[in-house]
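Throughout this chapter, every protein is written as a compact record of paired, labelled lines. An example of such a record is reproduced below:
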Amino acid sequence: MKLEELDITRDDFSVFLELNPREKIEFLSDATEYGIEESIIKQIDNLADRFIPEMPYIETKDIQVGNYKLSITILKDEMHFNSNSMRAIRKFVSKLWNDGLLLSKLNIKKTKFDIYRYFKAYKIIGRGTPICPN
């Protein structure tokens, strides 16, 4: 298809106006090579990536440590521990340290979503070889 033969409708043009100059050139190139529909779908995906923020990965697990429950929330590079027993938190953090996970304490306060009494937050600095507790 030649550029002169390209037929851009009113709806297609409104998408075209939202693009930056580099994306407009890419749109026209794709439209002549693959067709208008393919080009519009590609550019709408690019616009969606630009305007819709990426949600952070969050994982929560509840485990049993002795007689107490321990809630662990893992964010990108942080771990939050919440339990009714400070000893359970210390015990689990010590186990992680001995397994080679390097943690640094963060000064984050407990929120209303942390249902247990005690709360501790740590930044994950890195991973290493397991450390012998002796």
User: Anything to note?
Assistant: Residues 93 and 103 are 8 Å apart (CA to CA).
